[in-house]
Structures are given as structure tokens and as C-alpha cells.
Amino acid sequence: MTTNNSPLYLPKGGLVGLPPAGEIAIFADANGNVFKIDEAGSVTAIGGGGGTISNSLVVLARAQSLLGTQYTSIGGTDFYQASDFTAVNSGSGTATLSAAARSGMLKLSTGVTTTSTASITLATNASQIDNVKTSKFYAVWRAALVTAADALTSQALTITGNSGPTIFQIGCRGPTGTGFFNVFAGDDGGNIRENVSTIVPIDTVFHTFEIWNDLININFAMDGAVLVSFATALLSGGVPAHIGANAVNGATATNREVDIDYMFVVTAPN
Is 29 in the same domain as 81? Predict the structure, then answer.
């Protein structure tokens, strides 16, 4: 609060949560542009200046609208620098930052050698979610599956157990179906809870993909619309996990590619 015309100081890039009902919050992004955010998470620039808002601020507001305002720990990347991610590739697979795209972008490409993989996690490859069953979390990717799918390939955004297999995937899993985006969900007990095609046709443009646990359901969404939900209680147990992405071409001697604009995960702080 300021009085007597004293200035209001705002830290650049300061993350904010959703304000209480009937109030707004004011903040500045990393470039010094000033914005307001309301109780519903709607963000508006103040003062007629141009400027863009950091993806992390939008992500945090969305996560808190789904999980609650106490969920303030956010990790992720806009893919501006190679130190933000760790790549694990095989065959002719590569994970490279685009030299031409705007606002930072990662290109995951298998290349044309069969059985090639391109995959990434955040730089530390550490746990970002302490328990996928008993803790609320929100994960999001802005990505495009820019090459065609077939029954032997996979291009997906993933949540993977730190010491086990992939637990959740959204994207295209060729064996599940090639005409529509599909969803996979398993657990540390080896049980498959979901492995289905959605009703959304696969295309090659950018979409926002989300996976979150509100302790009632595990939810998979695309561009804000929930595609699949199942009861969290169906998971046999919970494990620590981290977010990532992969492209796999299997026996297909053709490049398969996923382009990622950003990826983030939100949880409660320790």
C-alpha cells in the first residue's frame, strides 16, 4: 500500500497467485511490463503498452484455478537455452533448439534411422512431483506433433516415474490409434488405467496439453477442454515423477518430430 503519492515498487518477473474474490493483483513481467490478474486468472496489460506476459505467469494462474492458491511452486522452461533440459537420445534422435522459431522452441526429431528415440526432461532430471497419486500437481506443454503418425511410432508429452516407466502420456501413441490424439495412463503396479483414442483428430499445429491431479481425478486436457478423466483412487500406488516429452519412430525409417514451445509443472512448495 502506498500513501502521499509515494511510488509503488514491483519486482520484475515476480510470480503472483490468484487474488482473493473481488480483488485484483498487480505485477510486472521480466521486461518491466505491468499487468493485472483477477480472481479467475484473467491477465490484462495495464497502461496501453505492448509487451508480452511470461508463460510461467499464465501457467501458474491456470494451475491455481484448478488446484488452489497454495500451489505456488513452478518449474519448467521456455526453451531459450540448452541448459534448461536434459536430452536422452538413441539412433539418429536429436533434441535441438530452433534457430528460426520465435520465443524459443525445442525440436525433438528421431531422424530416419529405425528404432530411434529423441526424449527430454527438465535439466536436473530430478523429481518434480513427489507422489502422482497423493499429491496435487499440474503439468502443461505447448507443443505440436509436426509429422504424420503411424501404427509403429509415438510422439508424446509425458510424466514418468523417477525409477520406472512412463505413467501418463498425451499425444499420439501409434499402437493405440493414428487418426486421433490419444491418452495413456498407468501406475507403478503395472496396471493400465487408460489407453484410448479421443475424438480429436490429429493435426500438426500447436496445442496446449495439460495433465493434472486434483485428488479426485487424473485429468487430460487439450486447449482447455478435458478429453479423459479417471478416478485418482484407481491408481494402485504413487511414485515420484518428472515431466518430459519424446518422439519414437520404431520400425519406421522416417523422421518423427515433436516441437515444444514450453513445458511447466506446478506443485505445492515443500
Answer: no
Is 59 a domain residue?
A: no
Q: Which amino acid, residue 55?
A: N
Please name which of 193, 200, 188 lies closest in space to residue 240, comparing C-alpha atoms: 188
Count: domains in the chain? 2
For 54-93, write each residue's pLDDT tens digit: 688 889 889 999 999 899 898 999 998 898 899 999 999 9
Residue 139: strand, helix, or coil = strand
Contact between 270 and 173 under an 8 Å Cβ cutoff? The reply is: no
Q: Which helix (H) or strand (E) element contains residue 243? A: strand 241-248
Q: Which domain holds residue 40?
A: 1-53
Distance CA 26, CA 9 (A): 11
Residue 30 DSSP label: T
Q: How far is Cα 239 from Cα 216, in angstroms, rounded to an integer?
A: 17
pTM over cut 0.85 = no
Taking Cα atoms as reference points, which of 207, 220, 260 lies closest to residue 87?
Answer: 260
For residue 129, tell me if it sits in a domain. Answer: yes
CA gap 156, 173 in Å, rounded: 7
